[in-house]
Every structure is written in C-alpha cells, then in structure tokens.
Amino acid sequence: xxxxxxxxxxxxxxxxxxxxxxxxxxxxxxxxxxxxxxxxxxxxxxxxxxxxxxxxxxxxxxxxxxxxxxxxxxxxxxxxxxxxxxxxxxxxxxxxxxxxxxxxxxxxxxxxxxxxxxxxxxxxxxxxxxxxxxxxxxxxxxxxxxxxxxxxxxxxxxxxxxxxxxxxxxxxxxxxxxxxxxxxxxxxxxxxxxxxxxxxxxxxxxxxxxxxxxxxxxxxxxxx
Length: 224
Known about the structure:
This protein has one helix at residues 3-17, and strands at residues 28-48, 54-58, 60-73, 79-97, 103-121, 128-149, 156-176, 181-191, 195-199, 205-223. By secondary structure, the chain is mostly beta strands. The protein has a single domain (32-223), classed as Porin, CATH 2.40.160.20.
C-alpha cells in the first residue's frame, strides 16, 4: 500500500466517523499502556583486542516492548505532553573473532527508557486526531555477552549498562472511541544511544554506536 492510499484511507475514516465524540475541545490528564514493536539495528559495531578479523553476524533484530504513559492534553493549545516509561526486550547481536580458534560473542541487549513526549495535534470535529511530535529522555542499554571459544574452553560472561540521551520523532493518529477511552497508533524513529557489550579478562572489548529503532506504537488511554 503506497502513501497516497494511506492518506486517502485515513481521510475517509475521519469523514465517515463524523462529529460523534469531537476531540477539539477536550483537555485534561490521561493514563495509558503502550505496546512497542520495532525493527532495530546497531550502527558501527566496534571491537578491540581481536586476534583475527571482526565478523558481525547479526546487528539488526525485531524487538518488542511494553510501557506506560502519564499525559496531559492542553485545552487551549493543540498540544499533548506526556511521560513514557518503557522496557524493550532482547535484541540479539552476534559477533565473531575469526582468529584460530574462532571466538563467538553472543550479546543480549535490553533497554529501559524514560521519555518526555510533546505531540502537536490536528484537532477537528471527528473522533480521530492526527498528531506529530518528538521524544527526548534517558535510555539504559543493558548488555549480557557470552564469550565462547568454538571448539571448547575459555568461555566467559560479562554484563554492562550504558546510560544515554535518547531522542526521536513520531507521527500517528488517536481515536476517541468512548467518552473516556482512546486508542492510538503511531510510528516513531528513535535513537537509544550506545551499547557497551563487554570488557573481557582475555583483553577483548566490544561496543556499538547508535542503537536505532523504527517502532510501531499501540496505546490505550483513559482520560480523566
């Protein structure tokens, strides 16, 4: 489906929905839950101390997450502001030192984040409200790396946390389906910062720059 068809579909939904629950004048606090599905990747995986060539076997993955939001919808200005706390589950990165014997580094990455979101709304007489906005905040990338010497011997585990400034941009549409409940779908690009994948007793270290994610956000909110 191309972008023109998406625009026509959303426009038709707005027109058909009519003014039943008109969002243009409603303001106040809301609470919500959020599901996150993403295609994520790591830019510039870096190693030091390898005896052979670095071979990055996997630097992208599909990641899921969950979160909660506390927000406020401003009545006199078409703006929503919210605090979002979320947890993204395992991203699998796999790197190898091609020396003899080959050493495999299997890294599981989980991310905890707290973000401030500011969303500019296009308010209208329907129960659908498109919006665009941005996110900025804190993200901690927790990496658990298992170092395996293929053929046996020399195995080691290392856990590391890396704190980062996270930032992103998003766009979506909010649907007010009862007087107090709304559902939201949005796309967000977000940069979650760097990853420290380990410093090992054998002298090697492993890290990555710019953990980025293309996310689909599905949210349900209750308005007070």
